[in-house]
Design brief:
five-stranded mixed beta sheet, 16 helices, binds 5-phosphoarabinonic acid, globular, five-stranded parallel beta sheet
Length: 463
Amino acid sequence: MLRLNCKNSDCKIIGDVHGLNLEEEFNNSAEKIADIIRSLNQRKDKPGEWLQWMNLGYNEETIWYVKEFASLVEGRFDNILVLGIGGSALGGMAVTEALLKPYWNFLSPEQRNNLPRIFFLDNIDPDAINGLLDVLDLKKTLVNVITKSGDTAETMSQFMVIKDLMEKVLGDDYRKNIIATTDKKMGILRQLADQEGYKIFYVPDDIGGRFSVFSSVGLVPFALVGLDIEKMMSGIKDIDLELKNTDIHQNIAAQYALIHYLMDTKKDKNITVMMPYSAKLKYIPDWYVQLIAESLGKRVNKNNEKVNVGLTPVKAVGATDQHTQLQLMNEGPNNKVVTFIRVAEFDTILKIPKIFEYTGIGYLGGKTINDLMRAETYSTMVSLEDNQRPTLTLTIDKIDEYHVAQLLYMLEVQTAILGELYNINTFDQPGVEQVKNYMYALMGRAGYEGSASALREKMGIMI
Ligand code: PA5
């Protein structure tokens, strides 16, 4: 099971100025936290609460349906191309990077057990799109276009470019190479997919993009590249029992959330750094950045009072970012909480050969790269402790479907708890909608003409 060690945020370790008296704080907030957990679990099935993601670990029907599709298309495609952005891409990228063999797309078909390569297009850089199209044989590519709203301009414009090319390359058969993941009832993609006859997977109601990784948004790509989605579900189910516990002393999501909340509101530390000591986990912080930033960065609270709250998420990877960000973490402003993710057991034990024995690097010979990673992790932890910087450590036993799913699910639950502590709507994103509306106006979408000329004037000043 995923474990959290919070002792290095405690005042007994890092001092009263920067540390919290955790025992006291947990006791003081025990009732409030219990109420929040109870309330989230009571509201989770209620339409409009956007908490359906809390049920995804139990969605056996979707698992069955997704697995059936994956076995139906097995062996037919060399490539999976996911088109999506934000919550429709980041979970998929984080989990496939974590769980597939490293450099998956560079391996031979035999090394990949004849499973397809996987690519994510989550940007609209024309050079990048064109470059990827040079790499892919569209005849052997299954395109999975994912957009819950069904009309996100970035995703749909990519789709329009690629669909057009596919039709040219494949003729009428192109439809067999496209699947759509979108809302059940609403949106342009839903209509198009029906008209065109694409296979459709649905994003259930009341699940926002950044909480959708264990819906068909993530599960379809995962199953297509051979990941064990049932194991993910059992990981979630097992930790869910713990995360439903209303006693903060037994609930790591509640502890993680409360520490971040108090560090922000009592100790002026509103930056949350996520730093896995693992290259395979390197995109988990990207996913976390969106989860934290979009969920918690809000102008108004639930009473419509202006609050301008939020935590600023920062991504880092150990040991790489010891050589980029550690200086700042240790000696810059003491305004961050750093979360380390420690992997207890790597798949590989890699020996460092005993060479160059009589040089300054001779001490490395005979040890393992694993020893070095462990030494780097603890050295960073202790150096931050020496400098009274609060840190948390999440330990994941192994990087596999079971444990990675637990990690992501726990971070989702803690985000929901944090949203309740800040008393804000965790699940909307009005600040993103505003930009979308401006973009529609500039691109000439019907209904947005009014703001276009005023916008152009402002742009003239800016550029
Ligand atoms: O978390 C969110 O809701 C957003 O990041 C969305 O996932 C993102 O804007 C993409 O939206 P859609 O899936 O509708 O294309």
